[in-house]
Design goal:
This protein is mainly α and 143 residues long. It has one domain. It is built from six helices and no strands. Helix 1 runs antiparallel to helix 5 and helix 3 packs antiparallel against helix 5. 7% of the residues are buried.
Length: 143
């Protein structure tokens, strides 16, 4: 029924919103930077228009740098009392989490549109029970 379809679409949207919060927590807890809407890396991912998870993973691999526990290569080469400059490279974790956030944003926006469309259809056409009642009423009037 339209009512159930609307409910389930809202459940799907709520689940994705929870997942978005989990990714935001992941970034915050690890001290990683969430991308702002006009971040060039975000634009790069959106421009790529990945159609599969493998394509997103390939994008992350291209743009991310593996960071192992401990100091990076640059800080290992620091000399005496001169402090090393922290790496500005994008870790796989940061790239992957932010890529997931970009995709979740798109999916949630699409589900918003779907919910609005379903609500409008339900408002205009009614649900199954309502249409069944109207059909019975019309049938009785003909008698």
């Amino acid at each position: 029924s339209k009512k159930m379809e609307l409910k389930l679409t809202n459940v799907a949207k709520a689940s994705l919103e929870e997942l978005r919060l989990d990714y935001e927590d992941f970034l915050r807890q690890r001290g990683l930077t969430p991308w702002v809407p006009d971040d060039p890396r975000r634009k790069s991912l959106v421009t790529r228009r990945c159609a599969t998870a493998d394509e997103v993973a390939a994008w992350v691999k291209e743009h991310g740098v593996e960071h192992r526990d401990g100091p990076d290569e640059q800080s290992k080469k620091s000399i005496g009392s001169i402090p090393s400059i922290p790496s500005k490279s994008l870790s796989y974790a940061e790239a992957g989490a932010n890529a997931a956030l970009v995709l979740l944003g798109v999916a949630i926006a699409l589900l918003d549109r779907q919910v609005a469309s379903q609500a409008q259809a339900f408002e205009q056409e009614g649900g199954f029970t309502e249409r069944l009642y109207q059909t019975r009423q019309q049938s009785r009037r003909k008698l």
